[in-house]
Amino acid sequence: MSVETALVTGAGAGTGREYVRMLLADGANVLAVSLLKDELDDLVAASDPGDGQLVVKQADLSEPDAAERLLEWCDEEGHVVDTLINNAGFAIYGPPSEVDLERVETMIALNVTTCTKLSVLFARRMKQRGRGRILVMGSTAGMAPTPRLGAYCATKAYTNSFAWSLGAELRGTGVTVTCVTPGSFQSKFASTADVTGAGLLGKIYAREKLDAGGVARAGYAAMRKGRATVTVGSAGQLAKVMSRVLPPTLMARAFKAM
Predict the structure, then answer these.
(1) Domain tally, the chain
(2) What is the pLDDT of residue 2?
(3) Is 152 known to be catalytic?
(4) Which residues does 154 contact at the CB level (< 8 Å), separation at least 6?
């Protein structure tokens, strides 16, 4: 049996770094992609490839042709990807009339466009071979419209829906798609989005005990079992239940105080 080759985006920190660690522990060859070179350097220094191999690549996945260029790089280097972990993404926090629109555009490009392209491009190859795994990092934010996180929530609503739909379409082909929908957890997410000092929402993140390792372990286990979706954390479970009970307009009002 050939050694598994896995491609992980957003691999330099948080859940991405945890996915890399678990894949290496299972003997996989891992292609780790991140925007930040210092994160990749630190990942290499801290990792033990064991029986596998760790290859790092610095890339800005928010660029328009990032997905195509990443696939081309894999082809040029002879990497046949068995497992794709679509982990890269970030959030923007602030009143929608005041946020930096260029940064919003970058977020949409990364969270939506590149995630979609990578999933489709690699799913085609996997389907032809009759096997493969795709993990998409969604969020319960996509189930709960939240003022000041509106654009981010919208990207995750898309990501969740796309992952579930793609998984249903690929059912029976040997290719599985797992959508991981965590609630709040300790990671770079809150500081990157500048949520840490933001009223009640900031307090929720500050008090959250769930960390990136816990989220990644749940997501990784679900992917290995071929599960379509997994919701992680108490905050995530609450948001999931609320999304089934309350209309979205009422949820947005309820979260406005946050």
Answers:
(1) 1
(2) 82
(3) yes
(4) 142, 145
